[in-house]
Amino acid sequence: MIKKLRIFLALFYVVVCSLVLVPLQILSMKTGLWPETFILKIWHRMILQALGMRVHVKGALAKDRPLLVAANHISWTDIMVLGSFVDVKFIARADMEGWPLIGMLSKLQRTVFIERERKRTSGDQASEIAKRMAKGDAMVLFAEGSTGDGNLVLPFKSTLFGAASMAISEGAADQVFIQPVAIAYTRLHGMPMGRRHRPMTAWIGDQDLMPHLKTLLAEGAIDAEVHFGAPVPFAKGSNRKETARLMEAKVREMMQAALADPRPSRQRVA
C-alpha cells in the first residue's frame, strides 16, 4: 500500500510540475528570454526528486568546443542524471521520439534522434550533429548503441563517432574534443549495490517503460555517480576505431572505480 501511494504521489508531482514547466520551456525556445537548458535542468531535477535519486559528480564538463560527450548507457534515467546539472543536448534512438512524456521532454531539449539501423539516413544525422556541435552545443553520445545492465560497459561503436569526423570534413571545425563520461548507479537506500541489484536500475532492450518506471518509483533512494574524464582532441586523420576503444577504456575504468568505492549517500558533489 505504501509503495502504491508513493507511486501515485510521485506521478502527480511530475504531472503538476510539467504543466508549469513545459509552457515556460516552449516560451524559452521561441523567445530566448533565458537559456534553453535552464528550465530543463529544473525539470530533470524534479524527475530525479520523484524517483528519489541523488546525483554525485566527480570532475566537470569540459569547456572545450566543439564537444562530443561519449558516455555509457544504463537507463532512460541517464538523461535526467546528466541533464540535471550540465548544459548538454542529447543524441537518442529514433523510437524515443514517440514515447509519452520522455519523447516530449526530448523534443523540448532539441534532441537529435538517430536511426542506427538505416544507413541511408546516417549521413544526414551525423551532419546534423556536426552542425549542432559547431554552434557550440555539447552533444551527449551514448556510445554503446544500447543499454547495459549497470555492471559492465559494452563495446563502443566506432560508427557513432562519425559526427566528429563529419564536423571536420565539412569544415565546421579543425578539431573536435571528445570527453569520456561514466554513469554508475551505486547505492540503494544508502547501501552499496552488488551485481545482483544493479540491473534493477537498468532499462534494457525492449523492456516496457512503465513497469520499469513503477519499480524505480516504488523503491526510491538510489544514488547515481557521474565521473568526467579529460577530453581528447579528435582531428583530421584521427582514427575512429582507436578513439572509440580509448573512450571505452576510459569510461570502463571510471565506472568500475565508482562501483568499487561508491560515494556516501549524503555527499552531493566533489
TrEMBL record:
Location(s), subcellular: Membrane
Xref: SMART domains: PlsC (SM00563)
GO biological process: lipid metabolic process
A Pfam family annotated for this UniProt entry: Acyltransferase
GO MF terms, alphabetically ordered: acyltransferase activity
Protein keywords: Acyltransferase, Lipid metabolism, Membrane, Transferase, Transmembrane, Transmembrane helix
Residue ranges of every copy of the Phospholipid/glycerol acyltransferase domain listed in the record: 67-186
InterPro entries: Plipid/glycerol_acylTrfase
Gene Ontology cellular-component terms listed: membrane
Domain of life: Bacteria
The UniProt record lists the keyword DNA repair: no
Membrane spanning stretches: 7-26
Protein name per its UniProtKB record: Phospholipid/glycerol acyltransferase domain-containing protein
